[in-house]
What we know:
By secondary structure, the protein is an alpha/beta fold. It folds into two domains: 40-134 and 271-340, Bordetella uptake gene, domain 1 (D-Maltodextrin-Binding Protein, domain 2, 3-Layer(aba) Sandwich), CATH 3.40.190; 138-245, 3-Layer(aba) Sandwich (D-Maltodextrin-Binding Protein, domain 2). The chain is 46% helix and 16% strand.
Amino acid sequence: MKRIFNVTLIAFILVVFGAGMTFTGCNNKSEKSPVEEWKWERKVTFISPWGPGGGSGPTIRNIVPLVQEVIGVPCEVSHQEGGGGANGANAAFRQPADGYTWLLATQSQIVLDLKGQLTHDFHDNWIPVGKLVHSTNALLASAKAANGKYTDFRSFISYIKANPRTLSCAMLSTGGTDQASLYQTLALALGVPINQVEQYIKVAPYGGGSEIDAALVGGHVDVAIQGPGDSAGLIESGDVLPLVVFAEKRLTSFPNIPCTGELGIASYIGTWRGIWAKKGTPQAAIDAMEKALEKAWGLKPYQDFCEAEGYLDRKGFEKQADFKKLVDSEYKTFEELLRAIGSIK
């Protein structure tokens, strides 16, 4: 009888122990992160809505080979330009949301979306995965045109207050990043709504950076929105007077130029570029790509690229949550701008 009891007891302990092991194993399985569960099985494509040149081309082409090393499957960049960034976004939207097609996007897609120039609602159909770079623009003045009227940002603001719409500002992106950065900055500095900024300054669209430089040197335009690095030689020669950079802190490459942050002006718009996933893409794939982008971004080749382009002065890589906050904020800013200039109702 005692032997039967012992055998029964041992059997009971084994059953309980086995059940516990099964329960623990289930828990471990449920706690595995989505990144660990996602397995890359075939080629990954990144669609860029612009050509291989400019700022977007190098941004994506320098990181994709590193992403390929991280995830272990072939990765390619497909340049599908045209329509100011619309063609590539529309082409990417036609692809399945299976984790193998990703989109490079900037504020251009926000503007296109707000204007209704895409085949779909960009805000509701795309998920920000990771911001790669964030460039910095500046307000640059023609030394010849300034001619003692103003020497810094504060005196510039005083001048346009006293002499509204006598000065013109050159830019490439009217209705886009350049105009948004100008209008937001001046609205805050002048203490007026953004839809009143046009009462103080005129916008002059130009076709290229070299054209803007020539106009500044000749005094044909008073100020311009441009990256300080694009006019570095003219700044050094004294032909161009840098008034302010739109950034939280001074740039390490241009430490003598004041920034909006130190002036108490919360205007930091500059072109950012990041990777997006079509809505419906498995979250496990999105998380895995976020992790791969972050790791690739931190590798020396991409850090060298960012340093050479001046992309390390501002926070570069941002994960999904922070990137989405930036995107949502800029949707509001660009909507306000487009309404102010009459591009949307």
